[in-house]
Amino acid sequence: MSQHDILVLYYSRHGATKDLARLIAEGIESVPSANARLRTVPAISAVCEATEPSVPQTGAPYVEYSDLQECIGLALGSPTRFGNMAAPMKYFWDGSSAEWFNGALIGKPACVFTSTGSMHGGQESTLLTMMIPLLHHGMMIIGLPYSESDLMSTKSGGSPYGVSHLAHVDTQLPISLEEQRLAKAQGKRLAETALKLARNN
Question: Which of 11, 39, 80, 101 has the fewest CB atoms within 10 Å, i.e. is most exposed?
Fold first, then answer.
């Protein structure tokens, strides 16, 4: 288990948020000594009998609360659901009271990312509302500065609050070159910040 693991935690329904997570992980791992730990959350259902397999059939493993304790930073991603994070991700954070009580995330840096089906589907409000539980946990939020010139030219996603992607209503729009660069830059910035903080503690 690396002492310099940065948790990339996401929920993805159609794959766009997962693709952003992988790009952010790539940016994290471009920084020497930084390791991206990709994790996801299971879907939830109002039907009591509906269950997910204990191990995902594909993709990243399910997150455990110990991942919060063990990471030195966090990238949190979710598709937009009416301007907020998706219910499976909210469900995970709603169950993190023990980690909040123990201060597992206090002083660690975090960033957020999202994807939407429409241009005005709530990218920025989702990013902002995802920050709220992280602030309650005592995390330090890392955004994207305008020194990233792609913020000025992207037509499909990206903001100073965090990288985003417009997947379109059919979820088929690929991640643009600007979004790819912004995701990698966000991961790199998070890793550099997390390593500096970890070395000073």
Answer: 101
- The C-alpha atoms of residue 101 and residue 166 are separated, in whole angstroms, by 36
State pTM to two decimals. Answer: 0.92
Q: What is the CATH number of the domain that holds 30?
A: 3.40.50.360
The CB density around residue 40, as the number of other CB atoms within 10 Å, is 23
**Residue 62: left (phi > 0), alpha (psi -120 to 50), or beta?**
beta
Task: Give the type of residue at 117.
Answer: G
Integer Cα distance of 24 and 9 in angstroms: 11
DSSP H or E run through 45 = none
User: Residue 156 is which amino acid?
Assistant: S
Encode the chain (201 residues) as per-residue pLDDT tens digits. 456 999 999 999 888 999 999 999 999 999 999 999 999 999 887 676 656 666 677 778 999 999 999 999 999 999 999 999 999 999 999 999 999 999 999 999 999 999 998 888 889 999 999 999 999 999 999 999 999 999 999 888 889 999 999 987 777 788 999 999 999 999 999 999 999 999 887
Domains in the chain, number: 1
Which range of residues forms the domain containing residue 186? 5-200
